[in-house]
Each structure stands twice: as structure tokens, then as C-alpha cells.
Amino acid sequence: MDEEPVLIKLTPDQAFVLPDWLYEVMMKSDKLDAIVPDRAVWSGIYAISGTLEKELAGIFASDYEQRLAEARRRLVELMGGQWSVTRP
User: What does the alpha-carbon distance between residue 42 and residue 36 come to, in Å, rounded to a whole number?
Assistant: First the structure.
């Protein structure tokens, strides 16, 4: 098996919203079990979450909630949908 890491490219907005969702399903609820019942997959999920948290200083900014809402709005607009304030 090749031991070279796999690189995933995300836009800054994608990288910014993903840790919030991961935190919600991993730490604040029991949703991860329901969404991903295969525990072997969790290793990758935890690696992605940890990497994003280390790389994104903005998630600790005082205006984090505003930045998060703006990033969500931009991403949803790019996908042709309407932005919603409802959260998981």
C-alpha cells in the first residue's frame, strides 16, 4: 500500500464551513454514528477535522459566526440554491 498522503483541495469557503459541520456531527450530537456507521471511515473524518482546525485561524476569530454565515451564503449561491439560516 502506498504511504503517500492524499491531498484534497477545497476553496477557502468550503474549508471554512466544513469544520463547523464536522463539529456538530462529531461532538455535539450522536449523528456521526447514524451518518457514518462504518467506524473505519471515522479515521479519515477525524484527520480532516483536525487538519482543518489546525490550518484555519479564522475559526477562532471573534467574528467567526459572521464569517461562517457569509461563507455559507456564498457557497449556496454558487450552487444555485437559497441560503437558509437553519442549522443541523
Answer: 8
**Measuring CA to CA, how many Å separate 80 from each of 15, 24, 71, 76?**
19, 25, 14, 6
Does the predicted model carry a pTM greater than 0.90? Answer: no
Q: What is the DSSP letter of 60?
A: G
CA angle 24, 32, 20 (to 5 degrees): 25
Residue type present at position 63: D
Per-residue pLDDT tens listing for the chain (88 residues): 678 888 999 999 999 999 998 988 888 777 788 888 888 998 999 999 999 999 998 988 999 999 999 999 999 999 887 655 554 4
Q: Give every CB contact of residue 69 below 8 A, 6+ residues apart in sequence.
A: 85
